[in-house]
Predict the structure.
Amino acid sequence: MIRSKIAGIGMYVPANVVTNIDLMKYMDTTDEWIQERTGIKERRYAHRTKETTTTMGVEAAKIAIERAGITPKDIDFIVFATLCPDYYFPGCGVLLQRAMQMKEIGALDVRNQCSGFVYALSVADQFIKTGMYKNMLVVGSEKHSFGLDFSTRGRNVSVIFGDGAGAVVLQPTEDENRGILSTHLHSDGTNAEILAMYNPGTHANHWVNGQKLADFDNAEIGQMFFSHSMIDKAQVFPNMDGQAVFKVAVEKFPAVIRESLEANNHQTSDLRLLIPHQANLRISQYVQKKLGLTDDQVYNNIQKYGNTTAASVPIALCEAWENGLVKEGDLICLAAFGSGFTWASALLRW
Ligand code: UT7
């Protein structure tokens, strides 16, 4: 039986550190509020004009590829997860293929927000298990800082998010006790608008649950998905009902982690490390308590980077590995929850 193993891992975060105190220049917030509610102390923001979601993904990918002992020309397929792509279309996968001068391989973009990396990893895992490809590149990258509302109106969202990228190279292994043991993917779109960015979009059905998502004056041909009043009314920023998201997150995170353990006849005590998507330190602490995990069994770095959505799991995994917390033979669980809602887990033996 063929399994996929992580043969190389890399991360990239921009040099520019933005503290909670820095954000006070733009909006009515405090360091105390942000730290108490989220655990975040600082985050990184990409260079406004010189860095993009793709360029950060490239930096992380270079490291992952080098650590796998291969070159960009050896990559057989790209899966790129992001919610803030460089362009509305085409996706970042092809931009990375071009930037890294790879062969004319397939490139797929995954749009699953905070769960994006775990979804992308699962897609890549299937290609390896079927024997179709030998070197899969999986990237999660985000440049949130370009699309947030930095006025007080947007403070509940903008203080949370940060920029960065993570990447892994997956390769086949015939060692049954190594690699990705299973992945578990879920969605429930009932409350899709609770955590969403509606515009630009083709919905045109602009009232959802009593809320006006966009200022369309009419449905005439020529009506664009952007209007001046959408900008004036802040309908071009991410929208989030934080408390509603929090409630579902603390239910789905533990469930999908348990699901991965049960599928492989493991218990929480077998886990060397849980790498949860870095949504909010309070969510991670709640999940840790609910599963009865020790402090050593859960990795958190949201304090330094904020929530980097699709990049958060590979950044945390890479940092934990670089710090010597992930060693050969360790049982590792990756888990994520976010917009959609979508949630997912992957259990792997390093
Ligand atoms: O990756 C997955 C995506 N998202 C999540 O996982 C988010 C999950 N939810 C959360 O993390 C939390 O709900 C937040 C951190 C977003 C918000 O924390 P909260 O404890 O749920 O606060 P709240 O939204 O209920 O707001 C409480 C108060 C409000 O003021 P009033 O109405 O009580 O006067 C807000 O206006 O805090 C105010 N507030 C702020 N104050 C200072 C909201 N944002 C800020 C801010 N600074 N940045």
User: Anything to note?
Assistant: The chain has eleven helices and 15 strands. The domain at 3-173 is CATH 3.40.47.10 (Peroxisomal Thiolase; Chain A, domain 1).
